[in-house]
């Protein structure tokens, strides 16, 4: 049994189509179909139901799937033991992150990581949408938010403090809030459907109702609106610190509370053993953030 054929079967189930599996494995659709046919012929069972648009496992496919996944994990673990420095990483690594974090943090560290692992392919999905990482076949999701899905396995990478900030023009026109309740009288730039911001002081946690004329589903859009003087933003320190240092934005420090600090998490789709390529990527990201501490206040 060829592990390459097994991998096509597993990826086809994840993607819901042979075409999707072929794209993920960087092979032709014809080659993927041939691999799946070879595997079914060798096993003597039909593993999938195929139509022109979709693919789903048969009952035999459902039985074989966890064993197929275990075979691939055993291969990855064997290579990880033989090459503990990660020099033998191969295949495709699928990462998702927010648009801002993907562009500002992940993308800059990937060239060195990929130079160190020349047989590895990386697919970065940078989006502000909360996607189904299991259904999309994502290997690791980088998230900055409280985690609500207990089915997922998460590794905490580092703190993610946030800052209130606004342009000097906005503060000159409307004044700077001093206390938490003062935010109720200001134009606050929120993500879509957000009605409250979370704050903390010591062990106490607070919710402050906020509203404004502008909201967006994009952190980058909120940042640009803040630069343009439309109101007060509550954004990750690593995102706004350069603009504050350059004088484009002004940090707002309240006397009675500060924005609740979140954390940067690596989220995995399964509790099974994490593949070596995923572990090495997360380690590289942690090293990058240690050497480039963008979450620290200057």
TrEMBL record:
Residues 1-58 form the HTH lysR-type domain. InterPro entries: LysR-type_TF_proteobact-type, LysR_HTH_N, LysR_subst-bd, WH-like_DNA-bd_sf, WH_DNA-bd_sf. Gene3D superfamilies: 3.40.190.290, Winged helix-like DNA-binding domain superfamily/Winged helix DNA-binding domain. GO terms for molecular function: DNA-binding transcription factor activity; sequence-specific DNA binding. Keywords: DNA-binding, Transcription, Transcription regulation. The keyword NAD does not apply. This is LysR family transcriptional regulator. The keyword Ligase does not apply. SUPFAM superfamilies: Periplasmic binding protein-like II, Winged helix' DNA-binding domain. CDD domains: PBP2_CrgA_like. Pfam families: HTH_1, LysR_substrate. Belongs to the LysR transcriptional regulatory family. GO terms for biological process: DNA-templated transcription; positive regulation of biosynthetic process. It comes from the Bacteria.
């Amino acid at each position: 049994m060829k592990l390459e054929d097994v991998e096509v079967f597993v990826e086809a189930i994840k993607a819901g189509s042979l075409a999707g599996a072929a794209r993920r494995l960087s092979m032709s659709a014809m080659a993927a179909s041939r691999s799946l046919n070879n595997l079914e012929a060798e096993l003597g069972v039909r593993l999938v139901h195929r139509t022109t648009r979709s693919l789903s496992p048969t009952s035999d496919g459902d039985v074989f799937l966890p064993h197929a996944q275990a075979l691939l994990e055993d291969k990855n673990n064997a290579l990880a033991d033989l090459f503990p420095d990660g020099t033998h990483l191969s295949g495709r690594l699928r990462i998702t992150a927010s648009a801002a974090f993907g562009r500002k943090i992940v993308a800059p560290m990937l060239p060195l990581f990929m130079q160190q692992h020349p047989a590895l392919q990386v697919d970065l999905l940078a989006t502000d949408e909360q996607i189904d990482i299991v259904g999309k076949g994502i290997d690791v999701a980088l998230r900055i938010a409280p985690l609500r899905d207990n089915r997922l396995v998460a590794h905490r990478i580092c703190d993610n403090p946030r800052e209130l900030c606004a342009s000097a023009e906005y503060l000159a026109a409307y004044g700077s809030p001093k206390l938490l309740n003062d935010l109720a009288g200001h134009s606050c730039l929120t993500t879509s459907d957000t009605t409250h911001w979370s704050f903390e002081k010591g062990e106490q946690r607070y919710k402050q109702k906020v509203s404004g004329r502008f909201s967006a589903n994009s952190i980058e859009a909120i940042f640009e609106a803040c630069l343009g003087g439309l109101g007060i933003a509550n954004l990750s320190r690593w995102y706004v610190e350069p603009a504050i240092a350059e004088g484009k934005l002004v940090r707002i420090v309240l006397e009675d509370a500060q924005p609740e600090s979140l954390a940067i998490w690596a989220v995995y789709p399964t509790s099974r053993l994490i593949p070596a390529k995923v572990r090495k990527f997360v380690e590289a990201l942690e090293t990058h953030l240690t050497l480039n501490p963008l979450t620290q206040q200057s």
